[in-house]
Amino acid sequence: MGAAPLLEVKDLVKHFPIYKGWLMQKQIGSVKAVDGISFAINRGETLGLVGESGCGKSTTGRLILRLIEATSGEVWFEGQNILNLGREEMRELRRDMQIIFQDPYASLNPRMTVGDIIGEPLRIHGIARGAEKEKRVRELLEVVGLASYHARRYPHEFSGGQRQRIGVARALAVNPKIIICDEPVSALDVSIQAQVVNLLQDLQKEYGLTFLFIAHDLSVVKHISDRVAVMYLGKIVELTDKNSLYDNPLHPYTKALLSAIPIPDPTLERERTLLEGDVPSPINPPSGCRFHTRCPVAEEICKHQEPVFEDVGGGHYVACHLVQRK
Ligand code: SF4
């Protein structure tokens, strides 16, 4: 039997209530942002979590860190269900679980120096103060490819890629075990994206980090992920190791996402699957398989019966009636 995963998410649900009325006291529905997802991440592994905007992937990251509270489900981290922890226990645990946000412009306080931004978690968790803290900040700046004198500067003096490096240094400051990378390169120029992804990969090797890497594009997570989970309207529809996903995608939604990625070699052609229509509203998701309104191979059963998310062989999980029938 293999080692226990570092993080395990079981049947996680987040429904945001929608209220109406003069005092907003009447609940008239809910946004089913995350609707019963399960996955595990092993130590030292990178799990890519991919889907179109609004599919629930960023909400998933925030639920794991309890930046927002789950409606139901479990999040196991090193043997405890962290959704049951009290405020103080959770505060201590945050040392082990850090996040890098999508927008390096919005996530760094413009009135704080870079040294104070990176040193803040050291102060909050009582890890280092004074000269020791400053030394650690200088080290962290160098680890992420910046210079120690940058500590005295302010975020606006840096480019987007450099600001994301500052965000990485801040996340690394407390020696976390897992980092939720929430679309960390989506706001950056394509030329800079690879540099930040490479930096994260190098740091993972050096510090034995575990990543949940959230992205809206399968091409971004390809190099960094060991396994990839694909989300659609609050559900995971396919999860497998990187090679199986890119070479042998099984779910029609994954196939459509992959077919949209341009191939750099002009002599090769890929069969394109164009998805029709918009992503349906998570307030009232389609019955049966949520993808049936856009699926090019949907059958009658897909409208009425929700497919089970199950292992179809070798740890390749899929939720699709057609795949499971084969
Ligand atoms: Fe398409 Fe049906 Fe499979 Fe859903 S269950 S992905 S609608 S074939």
Structural commentary:
The chain has one domain: P-loop containing nucleotide triphosphate hydrolases (Rossmann fold), CATH 3.40.50. The longest helix has 18 residues. Helix 6 links the parallel strand 7 and strand 8. It is of the alpha/beta class and 326 residues long. Helix 3 packs parallel to helix 5, helix 4 packs across helix 5 and helix 5 packs parallel to helix 6. Helices cover 30% and strands 23% of the residues. It contains eleven helices and twelve strands. The radius of gyration is 21 Å and the shape is globular. The site of iron/sulfur cluster has 14 residues, from helix 11.
CATH secondary-structure class:
Alpha Beta
Shape: globular
Kindly, what is the distance between the CA atoms of the first and last residues, rounded to a whole number of angstroms? 29 Å
Number of helices: 11
Major beta sheet summary: 8 strands, mixed
Radius of gyration of CA atoms, rounded to a whole number: 21 Å
